[in-house]
Design a protein that fits this description.
- This protein has helices at residues 3-17, 44-63, 83-95, 106-119, 148-166, 181-197, 215-223, 235-248, 263-269, 293-301, 306-309, 311-333, 338-345; strands spanning 31-37, 72-78, 100-102, 123-125, 141-143, 172-177, 201-206, 228-232, 253-256, 277-280, 372-379, 382-385, 390-391.
- The chain is of the alpha/beta class.
- The strands form two sheets. Strands 6, 7, 8, 9, 10, 11, 12 and 13 form an eight-stranded mixed sheet that branches. A five-stranded parallel sheet has the order 2-1-3-4-5, with helices on both faces.
- Strand 3 (100-102), helix 4 and strand 4 form a beta-alpha-beta unit.
- Helix 12 (311-333) packs across helix 13 (338-345).
- The longest helix has 23 residues, at 311-333.
- The termini are far apart.
């Protein structure tokens, strides 16, 4: 190759690396996806399994030939639940040519949404903050899960129905939450107003980071007249709280939104988790869900088991599968760029995840792709369904 050809090739590579919106013109060039995971930070108890699934998914996909014959280059790192670190890694991966990004937390995803839109990089996060699904607020963000707000609305409706059916007390709810935008998301983004609309008393109570005993908070909650605690936190802190409540002999009903509705809670809390209601937006293994078959086969080939990895692993696999579907649609349409992937996402109309989630639909005015969840109860150390799929689209406050 002569010097001029070499320089032209280098210039082409530099052009590709300058931004997510530029097309990758070489048919066999890797497709670059950026990703950040929480492996060591405040939500690593649930973040680790999710991250493992995404990395496994793309390892397997590359073994099978990638997307349209092109390898996927997954650039990833642990950001330790640190917003500044997330912003740094985002910049690095966009400069490296990422045309798609997979994020994690609410605080970092909300902080990045303006840059994401300016860079025109489609962004799928593990945060289900309601505002992130509004294209007028976060144009290039797509939610592949029922929002925290919709989860709370559905759960509050169920608690009311349960009380009415049994003739018991109406729910008086304490929202025990993570000390972060993630923790306050369902309260600030509709929860407070929805509770008032339904005639429910509800108040927020922060769960301080690193706390190893929530007895004082739980005692205050019980003395306030609350009869129900809804957790918006991850499984580690929640396991401590339900153990504290058992030791104190408190007569409280406990319910989790999605990030404490998983096997990690069962492992950490043991018998103290009995009776906890769980908001399930990704189906757990063991139900014969077709959408988890590929994950199960991959793990079995490596000597593992989907039942051992659990719901969070299935969530990560399902999210990676949907992202890949969008990129494949973009490739089939002619090119893989941030803009073409964005357009591909908005073609999803009732996309079937094989039973892992409710059907996925994105439109130009609504990027909240999943609107439903089921409610389970922990009985004899297992998640047992107590409702069929409930859709949030009927809830006026959710819109």
């Amino acid at each position: 190759m002569n010097r001029l050809v070499c320089l032209a090739a280098v210039a082409l590579l530099l052009l590709v690396a300058c931004g997510g919106g530029d097309p990758v013109s070489e048919a066999d060039a890797p497709i670059t996806i950026g990703a950040i995971f929480d492996l060591t930070g405040a939500t690593s108890d649930v973040g680790t399994l999710y991250a493992e699934a995404i990395r496994d998914y793309y390892d397997r996909l590359n073994e099978l030939g990638g997307i349209a014959g092109r390898e996927v280059d997954l650039l990833w790192n642990d950001y330790g639940y640190d917003v500044a670190k997330a912003e740094q890694l985002y910049s690095e991966y966009v400069q490296a040519g990422a045309v798609m990004f997979m994020g994690w937390g609410t605080g970092d995803t909300e902080a990045l949404r303006g840059r994401i839109a300016a860079d025109r990089i489609p962004f799928v996060s593990a945060s289900f903050s309601h505002v992130l699904g509004d294209p007028s607020e976060a144009p290039f963000n797509f939610l592949v899960g029922t929002t925290y707000s919709d989860q709370l609305f559905i759960l509050l409706d169920y608690l009311i129905e349960e009380a009415e059916a049994s003739g018991g007390e109406m729910p008086n709810v304490a929202l025990m939450h993570h000390p972060s935008p993630f923790g306050l998301s369902p309260w600030r983004q509709g929860g407070e107003d929805y509770a008032k609309e339904r005639g429910i008393e509800m108040s927020p109570h922060e769960m301080a980071r690193g706390n190893t005993d929530f007895s004082a908070t739980l005692t205050r909650i019980a003395e306030s007249g609350a009869n129900t605690v809804v957790f918006q936190n991850t499984s580690g802190p929640v396991s401590i709280a339900v153990k504290n409540a058992r030791d104190l002999g408190l007569d409280l009903r406990f319910a989790c939104l999605n990030y404490c509705s998983n096997e990690v809670l069962l492992d950490l809390a043991g018998d103290a988790a009995e009776g906890v209601l769980a908001s399930i937006i990704y189906s757990p293994p063991g139900e014969g869900i077709d959408g988890l078959n590929e994950a199960a086969e991959y793990l079995a080939s490596k000597g593992g088991s989907i039942d051992e990895e659990g719901l969070l692993y299935g969530q990560g696999w399902a999210v990676a599968s949907l992202v890949t579907e969008a990129i494949e649609r973009a490739a089939a349409a002619g090119e893989v760029t941030g803009d073409s992937i964005f357009a591909a996402f908005e073609t999803f109309d009732g996309w079937d995840t094989g039973g892992v989630t409710a059907p996925v639909t994105f439109t130009s005015t609504d990027h909240r792709g999943v609107k439903g969840m089921r409610i389970f109860e922990i009985r004899e150390g297992k998640f047992q369904p107590v409702t069929e799929m409930r859709m949030a689209s009927t809830l006026g406050a959710a819109e």
